[in-house]
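Structure ticket #2291
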Amino acid sequence: MNGINVVTITILLILVTIQGTIIFRDAVKKKIPNPWIWGVIGLMNIPSSAIIYLIYRKLYFKKNRS
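Resolution: structure written out below.
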């Protein structure tokens, strides 16, 4: 039983790290303010952080194009 928990936690940590890294790199690439904050937010949970970031990114670009 402990083996399953360790494997599950390891997989979740890997996924959260990948998500945070992708969000951070995208924020830097798109020149969104405070990419480090977005990277840390990406490390908090899966997938709601990514969804929130994508919504913010869409609104940020819509606001700046006007």
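Closing remark: The chain has a mean pLDDT of 92.
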